[in-house]
Design a protein that fits this description.
The protein is an alpha+beta fold. It has one domain: SH3 type barrels (Roll), CATH 2.30.30. It is about 25% helix and about 35% strand. The chain is built from 2 helices and 5 strands; from the N terminus they run E-E-E-E-E-H-H. A 5-stranded antiparallel beta sheet has the order 3-2-1-4-5. A hairpin with a 2-residue loop joins strand 2 and strand 3. The protein is globular. The chain starts with a strand and ends with a helix.
Length: about 90
Amino acid sequence: MCLGIPGQIIAIVDDANHIAKVDVSGIRRNVNIALVRPDGIEPGDWVLIHVGFAMSKIDEQEARETIRTLQELGQAYRDELQMLHQSQIE
């Protein structure tokens, strides 16, 4: 299962290629933010991530509610975090 998971922008690490370091439940990975750049993305913002891309900008309340709901999925959420942990976008 591939879930959209909220993550918080930590830093823009490659401005030219639209890559940001994002924290997803304690896992930090590079994510492509090209699709949400028009929304004015900066460190501290929350985004919904799917297959290595930030798909939309969300507010902190929505992010926390989504994380809580995903945690209720149990193993599916843990599997998704494991896949994220094993991924690498450079």
